[in-house]
Amino acid sequence: MCPSWYDDELWELVPEDRPPPPEHLVEFVRGLGGRRALDLGCGDGRLTQELAAEQLVAADVSEVALERARALLPRAELRALAPGDVLPYPDSDFDLVLCAETLEHVQDVQWLLSEVRRVLEPRGRLAVTTPAHGRLTGLDVLVRGFERRFDPFSPHLRFFTARSLAGALDATGFDLVSLRRSEGTLLAVATR
Description:
The chain is α/β, with parallel strands linked by helices.
């Protein structure tokens, strides 16, 4: 297993004393919970610590992020993942999977969502947050130009609208429970 040197380098650039996560993300995560939860793409654990679960697993492709998460998540099982590998969990292992600010960084979203579906128990929940794009993004590109809107050095590989996120969830076998936009973020909950 080989975590991502690319993501490690990005996390090295992130200040350790950065401000807390935005309140709308904290509120969304606090509204979740479960018996056994997986925060997939947990980063430094700042949102993971808001998740109420009896058993908590925090996983990321960055060893640097996981090292930072250790201090915040003393009761969680931390797991380093390799990008593109099968998730190292049995079928139906979790009743909740959180992907907060993660899907936009994933090369193969269909594969990842299929893996998430596999590790979720029947009627288990997937909670997703991702930057929201839509008509305003299109207008911004039209007015300011593509290069001023999208940084070529950004680690974001995917750009979701409410429709494209709902479509991706549907195409991978999820039933959408809720999808809303808040402060430039899409917040979705779907069930297996």
